[in-house]
Amino acid sequence: MRTYAALLRGINVGGSRKVPMAELRALMGGLGLGGVRTHLQSGQAVFTAGGGDEDSLAADLARAVEERFGFPVDVLVRDHAYLRAVMEDCPFPAAELEGRQLHVTYFSAPVDAARFAEIDADALLPEAFRLGDRVLYLYAPEGLGRSRLAEQLARPRLTRGLVATTRNWNTVAKLVEMTAPPAP
Predict the structure, then answer these.
(1) pLDDT tens for the 184 residues of the chain, in order
(2) How far from chain centre, in Å, is Cα 103?
(3) Any idea what the CATH number is for the domain that residue 148 is in?
(4) Is the peptide bond before 126 cis (omega within 30 degrees of 0)?
(5) Residue 164's beta-bridge partner residues?
(6) Which structural domain range is residue 16 located in?
(7) Euclidean distance between the first and final Cα of the chain, in Å?
(8) Is 102 exposed, middle or buried (0-12, 13-18, 19+ CB in 10 A)?
(9) Residues 6+ positions from 37 with CB-CB distance below 8 Å
(10) Which domain of life is it from (predicted)?
């Protein structure tokens, strides 16, 4: 059995696309996923599964959510080792920052710097971003809501063909903790 986190994009935001967490847990249990737990109301669930890969698990969950709630939801599934590597590979001094200042955008596939070449990063300093393994790290010292860089990174043409969903550093760390194997 492996432990995974499911990241559901754009649910329970602004009063629309409601997915109650208790119903999500029941739905996931009905798919045969074990140990289902949720974190916050914004679309994070942790579970165990004995088979399947990240993409098939995400597709199964996305299909089930749409059937149950009546609207499509993009889902990414990542295992503990990947989540831990994302945290460990952070190019910014995460321990020195507030959780609201650092964000990770998870992508469904690898991205390269050419996709973001139109952004004049120097003009947006001290905000900054760096790419990693299917992720983009964003340092926004005033938070995501005030970030001019985040606004530019969110342009649809920059993420065309990808599922992309962003989490603040507190959530990144919590998902690593929740997916960690039990201590011996």
Answers:
(1) 899 999 999 887 667 788 899 999 999 999 999 999 999 877 899 999 988 899 999 999 999 999 999 999 999 999 999 999 999 999 999 999 999 999 999 999 999 999 999 999 999 999 999 999 999 999 999 999 899 999 999 888 898 999 999 999 999 999 999 999 877 7
(2) 10
(3) 3.30.70
(4) yes
(5) 107
(6) 2-79
(7) 16
(8) buried
(9) 25, 45, 46, 47, 178
(10) Bacteria
* Same domain membership, residue 146 and residue 103: yes
* pTM of the predicted protein model: 0.94
Residue 68 sits in a domain of what CATH number? Answer: 3.30.70.1280
- Mark which of 26, 61, 79 sits at the end of a domain: 79
52 and 122 co-located in one domain: no
Is the domain of 93 the same as that of 172?
A: yes
Residue 65 makes CB contacts below 8 A (sequence gap 6+) with: 8, 19, 24, 27, 73, 75
Q: Encoding tokens for residue 99?
A: 């959780």
Q: Which pair of tokens denotes residue 66?
A: 């749409």
Tokens in use for 56?
A: 């098939």
- Sequence-ordered alpha helix ranges (H) in 42-132: 54-69, 80-88
Q: Which residue carries 């989540």 as its tokens? A: 83
* 106: Cα within 13 Å, side-chain hemisphere: 25
